[in-house]
Amino acid sequence: MWTNTGFAIDPRDVDEVERSDLIGYYHPREIVADQSLSVARRRALLAHWLSDRNAVRGVPGLRSTSTGVTARVDDLRAALCALDRVEEMVPAELAAHQMGQSSMGAAA
Asked: Angle 81-87-2 (CA atoms, 0-180°, nearest 5)?
């Protein structure tokens, strides 16, 4: 049996997301690719950017950050779907890695 520590809850994951947390990101795929953040935190950032409070007045298909970076709603949703795929892949990779370690330990 193995423990999946890759998805452990970090207290910062549940912190309220501020608009300033999106500074430095110019496209939703950059958040997906930022492996310095947990998947839960990346999801929170994307969901915040996607929220109606960031809607561009008169253009319902766009969302804007506090620095004026805009993203299409479709791109934000695609990024959330990409995170779903990341979550599906990581446990399988961890299990394969850990199985490899246990078989190596048995052979040594």
From this structure: 170
- Cα distance between residue 104 and residue 47, in whole Å: 42
Amino acid letter at 105?
Answer: G
Angle (nearest 5°) at CA 14 between 45 and 42: 25
In angstroms, the first-to-last Cα distance of the chain is 20
Dihedral (Cα; 16, 20, 26, 29), 10-degree rounding: -10
pLDDT, tens digit, 9 for 90 and up, residues 28-63: 999 999 999 999 999 999 999 999 999 999 999 999
Residue extents of the structural domains in the chain = 12-107
pTM, full prediction: 0.71
For the chain, the 3-state helix, strand and coil shares in percent, each to the nearest 5, are 60, 10, 30
DSSP output for 29-66: HHHHH-TTS-HHHHHHHHHHHHSGGGEETTEEEEEE-T
